[in-house]
Amino acid sequence: MSSEEALGSTLSNWLSFNSWWLLLPFVMLLVVAAFIVAFVLLLYMISPLISPKPLKLNGAHVVVTGGSSGIGKCIAMECYRHGAFITLVARDEHKLVQAKKEVEKCAINDKQVVLCISVDVSKDYNQVESVIKQAQEKLGPVDMLVNCAGTSISGKFEEVEVDRFKKLMEVNYLGSVYPTRAVVTTMKERRMGRIMFVSSQAGQIGLFGYTAYSPSKFALRGLAEALQMEMKPYNIYVTVAYPPDTDTPGFAEENKTKPLETKLISETAGVCQPEQVAKIVVKDAVQGNFTSSFGPDGYMLSALTCGMSPVTSITEGLQQIVTMGLFRTIALFYLGSFDSIVRRCMIQREQSKAADKRDKRE
Asked: What sections of the sequence does the record tag as coiled-coil (predicted)?
């Protein structure tokens, strides 16, 4: 063999050897991808086995606080369409009577009943316990409690009256604690039940103008997580709903005093209809899902803020793990946009003040 042939043979062998090493990372990547796909398929196969058994609404007794209007009324109507017996709880008797008529139109059989109870769920626990007991005597044990009683106020921290901070915690937090406390004993005895807390996307992220409102909604998350750990052995599942801005009478009232910054930030997400919200939250509560979110923004927020919150399926946890990095990157752009809105409003306000001063001097 000539020296040239030997060199060519050596070079060919060297290239073949190095080509294998160049291909090795791609081969390993394919193997890892195959394992991941197989793992995900396995999770999808076994996740139904560990998920809660859905609650049957037909014939179930559902109590809805804040049920005289808005999201609460629509949740009651949605449950009634599935054959549930409804107890509406709210302060305003006139609104309760009107809501009852609207809910009754959604009946699917002649046996369904709508009971109305006028009470302030945030004031006196003994009174709340008493009316819940009356409702259970008439319609049977509570199968699902929907805590939807709430109120909102927006404004700059230093401009919100101090009493309003206390008021919001009483209505939005204690107004959910008291009814829940009144039903859990019976639920534990029966080893079944659903408890829903209607929070807000402002209960996942603190925004300009919500220094009084956001903490009262964040508190529901802490209550729900601790309560779920206590209730799970008794087959009782807790759901926290995080609706975005929703077209309700309460939202319209809030907009009357909402700061410009808050309005501009809120407009980036749009406004939902209460009927849409009701369908989603009822479905999630029936399934026993801990978190109920709305739209792409809501899904992203829930994944970002999941923390140590419970999951009802392995796939849910896996999705949170996989999407966390991407969603955090997107969230940083959102936060930058919100900060920009606040800065622009501040500059415009300062320029306006300066112009007013000049006009007065002239």
From this structure: none
